[in-house]
Specification:
Blueprint lengths: L11 E7 L6 H9 L6 E7 L6 H11 L4 E5 L8 H11 L4 E6 L3 E2 L3 H11 L5 E4 L1 E4 L11 E3 L12 E3 L3 H8 L6 E6 H7 L11 H12 L2 E3 L5 E4 L5 H7 L3 H18 L5 H42 L1
Parallel strand pairs: 1-2, 1-4, 2-3, 6-11, 7-12
Antiparallel strand pairs: 4-10, 5-12, 6-10, 7-8, 9-11
Length: 311
């Protein structure tokens, strides 16, 4: 891994967005402060929290004013994840930007390793990597961690190399496990693509940005994992599945991709082929989920009527 001397250590803007994360926010902040890479700033973006997390964030900002800032939307509104990250991007000063959710953590050498790689590959707009689905934080023996985004072999198909556009976009569309998380992106590229789409308030907010980037820029894919994604009952992913919204959110994202590709006049047959496959599969999964949810009600009603008639 490339090692950078202090004069060649560009500023990294770390953006933590949070909404009612009093239980986990301190661990997320501390994982930034424990980075071996020294040249960072931390933007704590409050998306309208009503618990104790704003006070915690403000306390860190007051204690470390040279490196940590606390940001909110006007009137402390809840505007969603994309709008909150966009606020962080607007206020960021670094050459690079990295996202961290308020309930997740980084490993200590995350920034040092990733900055070293992007400095080594200046043509790359973005560095992406696998993430650890962190179940074991509970301390329960049955909660086992899973490596997500590395494929069945434990190695990314394009791992440890530069991937030209739009090859990586096809992989993102076809296989949901290759999710964009825990990476590092050049701030000028983020500004050029316009940041996130505010319609994506609580899911796929990072994926839409990655689509814009992977369509037009090379991306460096690393096999190493630096990001621990905490799995808990109130996480966005778990909540979407519990509410039966995961399938419809996936469809919304893929339909946005189709519209974006049309606006960009994309002609590459491989991209459209991958998108058609992803849409077909997402519709099928959505249809099966609807049938599964309707069956208990249908069979339950039929059973009640039959029991009443037999009685």
């Amino acid at each position: 891994m490339a090692t950078l001397s202090p004069p060649h250590s560009p500023l990294v803007s770390c953006i933590i967005i949070f909404l009612n994360e009093a239980q986990f926010l301190e661990a997320a902040i501390e994982s930034v402060m424990e980075q071996t890479y020294p040249n960072w700033e931390l933007l704590l973006v409050d998306d309208g929290s009503t618990d104790a997390s704003p006070e915690l964030a403000q306390r860190y900002a007051a204690q470390y004013p040279d490196q940590i800032r606390y940001l909110t939307h006007p009137q402390r509104q809840n505007l969603g994840m994309s709008a909150s990250r966009n606020l962080g991007i607007q206020q960021a000063r670094g050459k690079y930007i990295s996202y961290l959710d308020g309930d997740d953590v980084w490993v200590p050498h995350k920034l040092a390793d990733q900055v070293g790689l992007l400095e080594q590959y200046p043509e790359a707009a973005l560095l992406d990597c696998p993430l650890l689905a962190w179940h074991s934080w509970t301390g329960n023996p049955e909660d086992q961690d899973l490596l997500y985004g590395a494929g069945d072999s434990g190695q990314h198909p394009y791992g440890d190399r530069l991937v030209p556009p739009p090859r990586l976009l096809c992989l993102f569309l076809e296989d949901e496990q290759f999710v964009p998380s825990g990476g590092l992106i050049r701030r000028d590229v983020l500004l050029e693509v316009g940041g996130g789409e505010t319609d994506f308030r609580d899911s796929y907010e990072d994926a839409v940005v990655w689509v814009k980037v992977c369509l037009n820029w090379p991306v460096y894919i690393a096999n190493q994992c630096w990001y621990w994604y905490r799995i808990h009952p109130n996480s966005c992913e778990r909540t979407a599945y519990q509410r039966g919204l995961a399938e419809s959110k996936r469809l919304k994202y893929l339909r946005w991709v189709a519209q974006y590709l049309r606006r960009q006049a994309v002609q590459e047959a491989d991209v459209w082929r991958s998108l058609r496959f992803a849409l077909w599969r997402a519709r099928w999964i959505w249809f099966k989920a609807q049938i599964k949810r309707q069956l208990p009600r249908t069979w339950g009603g039929a059973y009640s009527r039959a029991a009443h008639e037999d009685g």
